[in-house]
Design a protein that fits this description.
Layout (H helix, E strand, L loop, with lengths): L1 H26 L5 H18 L9 H8 L3 H4 L2 H9 L10 H7 L12 E3 L3 E4 L6 E6 L6 E7 L5 E8 L4 E5 L6 E9 L3 E9 L2
Parallel strand pairs: 1-8
Antiparallel strand pairs: 2-3, 3-6, 4-5, 4-7, 7-8
Helix pairs in contact: 1-2, 2-5, 3-5
Length: 200
């Protein structure tokens, strides 16, 4: 009975610590992608610690979204997410080289010089809720095409605007919370890529 009592007390203490951790995590206001990822992964980890593997099955898509990001831009949460994804599928091979290459973290000779990652683009606010203003830091002549895709490169929307205006507002109400790729094509030649985060 004493051993069972001690075990119950330890479990109750651990649950209290997890509840405290959840409250602290909920109070965090992420500003950048690594912080946003970390908050999500901590939230899911707490659910896992309090319950079991089956309790986080509903978060599999979210975890996979983070796990497939480039670790240099997604932060340490990428590796944490991969550990949780492995509970369900430990055969996934992550293409860090190609993902990071897209974002300019590896400089190879065959990289096209007209692709810029997070250079010349500002997204305000980011994370966004109902809208995001995309701003070009430089002035261009011609037509700018904004293409938004999910992490699997599936096109979700495409809009155009006059590059001279240097700014375009995107309505984001229809998107679920998560991370999206935003690409701007200028006269179908110069390509600029950035990450758009939707958080509600």
């Amino acid at each position: 009975l004493q051993q069972e009592r001690a075990s119950i007390l330890i479990q109750a203490t651990n649950l209290q610590k997890l509840d405290n951790a959840k409250s602290i995590n909920n109070s965090v206001q992420p500003n950048e992608l690594p912080e946003y990822n970390l908050k999500l992964v901590y939230e899911i980890s707490i659910v896992y610690e309090k319950n079991n593997k089956d309790s986080i099955a509903q978060y599999y898509a979210t975890l996979l979204n983070i796990a497939e990001q480039c670790p240099y831009s997604g932060g340490k949460a990428v590796y944490m997410a991969r550990g949780l994804v492995a509970l369900f599928n430990d055969t996934i091979m992550y293409e860090d080289e190609s993902n990071c290459l897209l974002q300019g973290y590896y400089r190879l000779q065959n990289v096209q010089p007209d692709i810029e990652e997070n250079m010349g683009i500002r997204i305000i606010p980011n994370p966004a809720n109902t809208f995001a203003d995309v701003e070009l830091n430089s002035s261009y002549e011609g037509i700018c095409r904004i293409i938004i895709t999910d992490i699997y490169s599936k096109k979700l929307s495409e809009q155009t605007f006059d590059c001279k205006s240097r700014q375009y507002r995107i309505k984001t109400e229809k998107y679920k919370s998560g991370v999206y790729n935003l690409k701007i094509q200028i006269n179908d030649k110069i390509i600029k890529v950035a990450r758009l985060i939707i958080a509600r």
